Each structure stands twice: as structure tokens, then as C-alpha cells.
Amino acid sequence: MSLVRVEGVTKKYRLGDQTVVALHDITLAFEEGVFLAIAGPSGSGKTTLLNIIGCIDTPTRGQVFIDDREVTGLSGDALADLRARTTGFIFQTFNLFPVLTAAENVEYPLLQLSEVGKDERGERVKRYLSVVGLEKYAHHTPNQLSGGQRQRVAIARALAINPRIVLADEPTANLDSKTGKSILDLMKRINREFGTTFIFSTHDRHVMAMADRLVRIEDGHLARLAMKVDEHWQQVRTGKNTHKRREGAT
Q1: At what angle do helices 118-131 and 147-159 cross, to 10 degrees?
Q2: Is the pLDDT of residue 15 over 90?
Q3: Residue 226, pLDDT score
Q4: CA 54 from centroid of its chain's CA atoms
Q5: How far apart (Å, rounded) are the C-alpha atoms in residues 234 and 248?
Q6: Quick check: 59 and 25 in contact, CB under 8 A?
Q7: Could you give the CA distance from residue 151 to residue 172 in angstroms, rounded to a whole number?
Q8: Which end of the chain, N or C, is less packed with Cβ atoms under 10 Å?
Q9: 248 within domain boundaries
Q10: pLDDT (tens digit, 9 = 90+) per residue, 235-247?
């Protein structure tokens, strides 16, 4: 059973008096525990697809399933509750609250979960700041942290809800290469140790090299779907939108 499945997803936007088609009839399925990159240039539709998977956006046409449950017809409140309980988000600009400490930023999404009491919130904050190596910086505000440390706080915040899925939108874009690699190594370790599903939107070749699944989006179309076998990529059979071409290094 797939953790995430999208079937025939098309997304259209109105831009002035024009209609922009961001995604064209995308069908994909992702299993639990995957470390997957959705790759493509700016404007290709990769972030739109990530947002639809995360139930931040809804498709114009098509269906989205989480754990074989269709979510495309849910109300806004139901989608918000689903996100709060199943999906962690990591953004390239970190999206931390500047007036809150690292610990308070990590705790923030837990305040939406009525079943998680104060003591458990404190335990989770401590645990996940430790996972990302920032327990000594719990009382620092974002402006007292480096870019890499801020992204680690964002990762801890995403993990605090014990998510099934973590969605990362260009998580290394605002980091230097050394810091970016350390962040990727951290997320890969979390993926392996906790079995957390990571889905990235990216045009960073380092992210693609770390992934064990690759989806390439070009002009809103599914252009390539591959899986890593040892250190090589192997084309995966897909539907009508996949271009027929030999899979090489990414």
C-alpha cells in the first residue's frame, strides 16, 4: 500500500486574463520510508506538486490519497487537521518565528494538538532538539543562530508532531554547500533511523544524489521517474506522461 498517491492531478491557475497549467495529469505513488526528490527547474511545477501532496493546495482535477484515504474532497478544517497530525514542513527560508526561542518554535505545532499535554510537549521539544544537535541552543532566538542551525530548528519542529511525511521545499537553497551537505546528512540519518518519509522539491544535484527515488518534472509534465540501485539510477515504468529515454546520472 502506498503512503501517498496522486492520480490524474492537474493544477490550473488564473494569472490576469490567462490560465496557467502548472501540472498536467500527474499520476504517482510513494511508499512509506522513501527519501525522494522531486526535481526540476524554477517554474516546472515541482513546488505545486509538493504543496498538493502536503494538502496545502488542492488540484483542479484529479485525486490525492493518503494511506489509501482520498483527501481531495475534505473541508479546509479537515485538511488543516490532517496536516497538523501527519505532515511536517521544512522551508528554504526556515519560517521560524523571530520572537520565539528555538524550543518555542519546535513546540509551536504541538499547541494545535489537544491530546499532547504540557509535559509531553516539553519531552518532545527536548528530544528533537537533541536529535538535531541543538539542545544547548534551546533558549536562543533565530537571530542568534546560523543558517544551518535555523534549518536544524526547522527540522526539529517538523519532527515534533511525529509525522508520517516530511515535505522539504528547497531546504538547502539558502545554505552554503558545506552546511547544506550536513543538513542533508542529518535528514538522511533521520530517514534511516526513524523510517520517516522525506519528499523534497529541489534543483540541487546534491539532494538528487542523496535521494533513493527521483521524480523529474518539466513544464508541469512528469518527465522521469527513477529509483537508485546501488549508485546507479534505473528507470521505473510509469504511465503515458513519462518520456521514453534512457536513465543516466542526475
Answers
A1: 140
A2: no
A3: 85
A4: 8
A5: 8
A6: no
A7: 9
A8: N
A9: no
A10: 775 544 444 333 3
- Name which of 77, 129, 130 is nearest 104 in CA terms: 129
Contact assessment for residue 225 and residue 217, using Cβ atoms and an 8 Å cutoff? no
C-alpha cell at 203: 534543483
C-alpha cell at 165: 511525511
The domain tally of the chain equals 1
DSSP 3-state of 47 = helix
Q: Is 132 domain-assigned?
A: no
Amino acid of residue 67: D
H/E element holding 36? strand 35-39
Residue 81 belongs to some domain of the structure? yes
Residue 76 lies in a domain: yes
**147-159 helix and 177-194 helix, angle to the nearest 10 degrees:** 20
The x, y and z cell numbers of residue 239, run together, are 504511465
Sign of the alpha-carbon torsion through 195, 170, 76, 121: positive
* Helix residue ranges per DSSP H, the chain: 46-53, 76-86, 102-107, 118-131, 147-159, 177-194, 205-210
Residue range(s) defining the domain that contains residue 74: 4-95+165-235
pLDDT computed for residue 238 by the predictor: 52
Question: How does pLDDT run across 88-131, given as a tens digit for each residue?
Answer: 999 988 999 999 999 999 999 999 999 999 999 999 999 999 99
